[in-house]
Structures are given as C-alpha cells and as structure tokens.
Fold this protein.
Amino acid sequence: MGVIRKTQSVSLVLNEFEKNSKAISAIELVKRLDDKINKTTVYRLLDKLEDDGLLHYFLDSNGVKWFAKCKICSKSKHHDVHPHFQCTDCGIVDCLEIKITIPEIPNRKVVNSQILVLGQCDLCLQ
Amino acid sequence: MGVIRKTQSVSLVLNEFEKNSKAISAIELVKRLDDKINKTTVYRLLDKLEDDGLLHYFLDSNGVKWFAKCKICSKSKHHDVHPHFQCTDCGIVDCLEIKITIPEIPNRKVVNSQILVLGQCDLCLQ
DNA sequence: TTGCAATCGCAACTAAGTTGCGTTTAAATT
DNA sequence: AATTTAAACGCAACTTAGTTGCGATTGCAA
Ligand SMILES: [Mn+2]
Ligand SMILES: [Mn+2]
Ligand SMILES: [Zn+2]
Ligand SMILES: [Zn+2]
C-alpha cells in the first residue's frame, strides 16, 4: 500500500495528529471529520498511514483502535514499539517513552509485547 | 450479579475450562456450545462467572475477548492480574505466571496494566 | 490539456456483542 | 410430591466498529 498522492483527506487527517501529541481513536477521528471525509476513507487512510510508518496503532482496554504519530519509523519497519497509557478518569491516551523489559519465559520465544498502562494522568491528579 | 443456580449451562461452560488450562475466546466458546447453549446465554454466563471470580478475561491483539480460569480470586476481588501469552503460529492463548514490573512514571499514577506477550509457544518451537 | 490509476463516497455488509421480552426451570416452600 | 416464583434461558432484533464492492472523482504525470 502506501500513500502516493497528497490529497485533501490526507492533509486533514495528518493535521489532526499535529494539533497535539496525544493519540486519537479511529472512532473519534471519524466523528471529528464527519462533515469533511467519509468514514470509509478515514479508516482506509489510517491503514495506509500506518503502513507508511507515519502512524502506529494499538488497542485500548475496550478493544478500540487508537492511532498516534510515529517518530522514527519507516515504511519497512515500525521502530516505536512502546507501552501506551490511558487515563481512567478523563480517557486521554498517549505514548509512553519508557522501556519495559519482558523476562525470558521457559520454552517460549518472546517476539514482542503489547502493554497498556492504566491510571491517572497529570491533569487528573491535580 | 453472581451465579446463583447450578444450571446445565453453567456446568457445560465450566466444563470447557476444565478440559485444559488454556484460555478460550468467547467466540470459540459460542461455537463449541452452539448446539447446546444460545450465544446470548454464553455471553451472559461468561460475564457472571467473571463477576464471581471464577473466570477472568482479557483482550488479544485483535481486540477479541478471551477467558481463563481464576486460581485465587473471589467475588470481591480479582487477584490474578498477570500477563497473557498468544502464540503467533498456532494461536493458543494462556496465562503467564510471571510478574512484570511497571516503573514509576513522572506525574502519573499507575493503577494497573494489561500486558499481552506475543511469540511462539513450546509446541510451535519444536 | 488529457488520460487514467489512485482515491473517494455511498450503500450495503460483517461480526462481536447486547437488549427486550416471553418462556422455561432450579430449587425453596408448602 | 405438587406448587410457586424469581433466576435463567432462547429467540429475534438491535448496536456498533470496521470492511467491501463499485461507480464517480481527482491528483498528477505526460
Ligand atoms: Mn505510541
Ligand atoms: Mn489469565
Ligand atoms: Zn486524565
Ligand atoms: Zn503455538
């Protein structure tokens, strides 16, 4: 796949991710752009942008898909495999710049892991 | 909620989890019991059994709900918060009896975490 | 400009899970 | 053992995130 054309829709979607550094759920993005882009297009674009290494995705504790900007990824490989954080009070989701080590497990080969940390964000703690 | 009556359906569902110690997805369980229990009942039972501390659940990398037996949990609290493992080759899912420590995160209060480890299981490694 | 494949919009579809409601049944009470 | 009744169940219809097929539109290279 991969994005080939710089269409209006691509700009609109990427612009939403430029506004701040938080993650955005596909559901929320579809709503935000409802009057400008068809939901099918939004989903297809998210897939493509992920494919291109511009966005990465993960699932929250309800199985909902969230997307966030990649920092050092490319079309060939996502390098930014990291944990994500969801605030149980306000619902914001973002990327954690920390490394959590998965120990060796007997008789198993660990390839990667998906970690969702739940708790309270800085704003909700005040 | 909580299971009150020892019905035929309860036995059938619990029996599936007694067969071995692996986790079972709700989807798979509905299929397995298709000729014996209505899917609505299966989902309602899984909810109840989870509520009662007999089963716990988690999501796999596709957002699909899986259930597994609890060991030391009760109606009032799930004590068995642990990582889960999914084999990327054969698809089996089970509980990991290991503890993975989430470090302190500045300006955030970590309450709990959901960890899915992906890799190859013992059988698929041979 | 023109050509045309990439992209898009729309409607219909898929699949996991839920809800409402009338019927059945476990099990306590007579 | 028969009666009672709320818990549990089955069924059909619904919800919702995401997908598919296809004809119309559009970015962009020639
Ligand atoms: Mn991230
Ligand atoms: Mn488990
Ligand atoms: Zn918050
Ligand atoms: Zn395996």
Observations:
- The helical segments of chain A are 8-19, 26-32, 39-51, 122-125.
- The domain at 8-125 of chain A is CATH 1.10.10.10 (Arc Repressor Mutant, subunit A).
- The pocket of manganese (II) ion (ligand 1) is lined by residues A 56, 68, 82, 84, 95 (CB under 6 Å).
- The first strand of chain A starts at residue 24 and ends at 25.
